[in-house]
Amino acid sequence: MLEKNYLWRIYWRLAGVIMVCVVVALAVVSYFSHRVFDRELVPETEQKAATVGASVRALVLKATGYGIDFAQLYGVEQTFAEVFEENPEFAYMAITNTDGNVLFARGTEPIGARTHFRNPVVLQIAHETTDLSKAARVGQQYIVSMPINDAGKPLGVLHVGIDAAFVDHVLLEVLLDVVVVLVVSLFFTLELLNFMAGARLASGLGEFARQADRMRSGDFTATARIRANDEIGRLLRRIDSAIDHLNVRYEFLVGELQDKLRTASAQRREDLKPAQAALEQISKRLRFGSAPEAADGDEMNLNRIRAPLFAFILAEELTRSYLPTYVNQLIVAIPGISPQVVIGLPIMLFMLIVALGQPYLGSWSERVGRRKAMLVGAVIATFGFTGTALAYNLYDLILWRSLCALGYAMVFVAAQGYVLDRTGQQNRAQGFALFIGAIMVATVCGPSIGGILADNIGFRASFGVSALMALASILAIVRLPTTEVKLAVAKPVRGPRMREIMALIVNRRFMTLTGLAAMPAKIILTGVCFYLVPLYIVSIGNTSSMAGRMLMVYAVMMVLIVPLSASLSDATMRRDRYVSVGLIISGLSGLLLLLSDSFLVLFGVVFLLGLGQALSIAAQSALVAEHCQDEIRIYGHDAVYGVYRLLERLGNAMGPLIASLLVILWGYQGSFVALSALVLFCGIAFTIATHGPEWQPAEPAPS
Amino acid sequence: MGTIRVRFIIVALVVSFFAVGMAAFLNYFKYKSTISGIVKSRVLVIGRNIENSVQASLSVGMQFMELGTMNALLQREKASDRLIRGIDVFDQTGQILYSTERPRVGEKVANSWTEAAARSKTTEWGTEAADEYVAGISLKNNFDLTVGFLAMRYSAEEVERAAKVAGREILLASIFSFLGIALIAPLALIVVIRRFERDLRALEAAASHLEDRSEPALPTGSAFDSAIGNLRSSLRDANVALDDLRAKLDSVS
After folding, report:
1. pLDDT in tens, B42-84
2. In the prediction, which pLDDT does A214 show?
3. Which of A277, A289, A487, B227 shows a CA-CA span of 20 to 30 A to A500?
4. What is the pLDDT of residues A25-44, one digit of tens each?
5. Are A517 and A620 in contact, with CB atoms under 8 Å apart?
6. pTM of the predicted model, to two decimals?
7. Percent of chain A that is helix, strand, coil (3-state, to 5)
8. In 3D, which of B235, B205, B239 has the Cα closest to residue B219?
């Protein structure tokens, strides 16, 4: 593992340096943006203040026109309060008389205001008969002053104070998105390091380490590999060359000995016996000749799946934070179906196609070849995304999203197969870590960036970006090796049969794991994250960017906690406890909304949901192998896991449907609470069901 | 310059380009939406004045279709801000009832206006066309029923001009930031990966002397010292075995 840890240390150092550079660059861009905002927004706000002031002045003049004394006007402060409510950038309003004395005022008076009001230049404003307004910086405010003049008779001056910090508030909102960009940049950095240099470095250094191990064990067989023209490639070529020299020398000596033996007399044969013995010794200890083809896959080619998978999954993840809002815009009334259910329909259909398609697409991708299957899937999804961007209404949107789902299922299954084909028992976990890593990074980056894009360039253009990402994934898929790898020991994958499905869904032990843990976990995931959060956030006046940030919190929790909980649950062998605790935490998440509907509470909901899911997700599938040994023996590993995954994915499809039905009954908050209560109930039921002795962890098998 | 170093630098540049580009994009669109919001709310202030007048008329029993002073009011309010190109009042069907431009009365407004008004969850709504924006208010009677819509058309030029100026400056700042990174990042990266490159050089140097029979080189402190040592000793052992065979063969001849 030397090369992996060594490389990761280098990656983190590089990522650190790149992040520092990025932070400095972002600070520079933000500084100059602040200057532009300050310079351009303040005059525009001053003009707005003048317009608002003119409206207030009209009211004042109307009142004085009825004969009310200017100094005795009633309700002026209330009018000012109403202005503040509609224009939060205004911090202060006042009316002064012709001597500069304040008659009416509301808000935070800036330091030096009284002196400013008595300034002769300001006092002169009262005598202006035009709509003139003048602005000046007073303390922390820009004061816009305008005359109150009743048909040539000066009454006083109206002052509107603009908070100078309002530009900072505007930029603070941008700052949140910039932080998101920073987080995404960090993940991009690591992903790119791996894609552009790491894959080759890791495989090169891995090859070097393996070569050193082989030589130490006496294996000097020559490999006929083409080495890259970089530092590692040159190094491996030198080692290859040293091995080749040895092999040539060995063959020459063997040939010479055989020649001599062929032509030797009896006495001479006797003399050659020590040499023969030496050769036998060498043959026992050392191996020369040509190395057999690598049996357990090619690490370099395995790594090459990461980039296309990342790009493709990112295309889909980009849409997570705004898809329901987009559907809401294109919605058409479907008789007998509530709009809430209709909004969830495309998400539900997507999940259903993925759930039902995956078991069968696995064997299809094996037949046609992983690369070709990925290509077909990515092309279909690209059409799907383009169609979604141009969708006319809900009906064609459903068709386009179905294409996206089909493409997604194809690419996902084929990529999974690609990893399976190129890994053996020794490196399968490593292969899947790479596969899941690409998906997780896309899950962190996608929703947040998608939300930002949707808010700024619109939903349709954002789907266009997804189409471009899917297109980029096609270019990366094309670069995958054209030759398919199939391990001799690998059995063909098959989807579960109906008989197996029926037998397993009435199996108590299997359904305890699937019905009480896996399915509820998926229901709450898609119901809350893919349906409720994007819609609820927008319904309370927030943006898709905010929904994206929320979903990013979930994904970051998964990235940080899953590896930890996976290793801890494996080490303690109490996976059921991790699942119980995870489900209960997930179940408690939505109940937080009973306390308050504030935005921070929603943040807490997503945080807890991410934590709960991260604790239970890794342990769930491992529990199937641990506690369904009998079922695996009867139906086979593929069938048991096939049914497990199928039901789990059906949970994915049910999530938006259940959430939408709950929204009809109890609104968004009620839906959050009810979904969570359902999962909490399942969590408690799971804990009770797995309490008995039959669920105690088995003794670890002798290694 | 080594291939790996070049690759690392390319990664730094790609990531920086993404981050700086996204920051510029965010700042530009935030600026544009803020300035649009300011201008729109400025226009809506005038709209609120009209709305108050309409509601005052409706509250004294006048019919919405028969507000005699409406056109004059619209003209007066339009004159109060140079930004406003025209003001229309239309009914639920989209037919214009009052307007600052007489010929428009009786015409239908664009569907996007009525759709935007219907979609809005508050009384305010807005829509954008190529050269002009529309800020609107849904007019309600005393029973909170919508009787019609007020639409103020204003020039997109002001927003576009401001956005253009800001966009240019943000773009320039971003380009300079990126160029700054393009200069600094490679230098910083070189410092960081020096150790790695040294390790690689040591490895390469050791590999070039793999077949030497001399004593192994002193440890360089590289992470690969032990692996190099193993390689050398393995090769040496193999060569010794072959030397022995050679010697035995030679002894016979």
Report:
1. 888 888 888 888 888 888 888 877 777 888 888 888 888 888 8
2. 81
3. A487
4. 888 888 888 888 888 888 88
5. yes
6. 0.76
7. 75, 5, 20
8. B205
For chain B, give percent helix, strand, coil, nearest 5.
Answer: 65, 15, 20
Residues 6+ apart with CB under 8 A from A331: A339, A342, A343, A394
In the numeric block, which tokens belong to residue A553? 């919190």
Of A30, A189, A281, the CB nearest to B11: A189
Rounded Cα distance, A584 and A579, in Å: 8
- Mean per-residue pLDDT over chain A, rounded: 83
Q: Are A327 and A346 in contact (CB under 8 A)?
A: yes
Structure-derived torsion over alpha carbons of residues A303, A309, A311, A312, reported in degrees to the nearest 10: 170
What's the pLDDT at A37? 83
Place of tokens 């019905």: A515
- Dump pLDDT digits (tens) for B156-209: 888 888 888 889 999 999 999 999 988 888 888 888 888 777 777 777 777 776
In this structure, of A43-57, A563-577, A689-703, B188-202, the range with the lowest mean pLDDT score is A689-703
Sequence-ordered list of residues with C-beta below 8 angstroms from that of B35, at least 6 positions apart, any chain: A40, A41, A44, B159, B162, B163, B166
Using CB atoms, which residue from B19, B170, B244 is nearest to A32?
B170
CB of A171 within 8 Å of a chain B CB? The answer is yes
* Host H or E run for residue B172: helix B157-208
**CA-based torsion, A150, A153, A156, A159: positive or negative:** positive
The pairing of beta strand B146-155 with beta strand A153-163 = unpaired
Closest CA to A203 of A494, A3, A52: A3
Closest-approach residue (CA) in chain B for A173: B30
Of B234, B208, B10, B236, nearest to A234 by C-alpha is: B208
Residue of chain A whose Cα is closest to the Cα of B29: A456
Contact A140, A110 (CB under 8 A): yes
CA A113 to chain centre: 51
> Comparing C-alpha atoms, which of B46, B171, B96 is closest to residue A36?
B171
Inform me whether the pLDDT recorded for A495 exceeds 80: no
Average pLDDT over residues A556-570: 82
Mean pLDDT of A166-172: 78
Q: Tell me the DSSP string of A298-316.
A: -HHHHHTTHHHHHHHHHHH
Instruction: Determine the residue of chain A that is closest to B40 in CA distance.
Output: A48
B25: closest CA of chain A, how far (Å): 9
Count other Cβ atoms within 10 Å, centred on residue B252: 16
Is residue A149 within 8 A of residue A60, CB to CB? The reply is no
In terms of phi and psi (left: phi > 0; alpha: psi -120 to 50; beta: otherwise), the region of B96 is beta
Assess contact for A588 and A680: CB atoms under 8 A: yes
| Cα B102 from Cα A306, distance rounded (Å) | 64
H helix count then E strand count, chain B = 5, 5
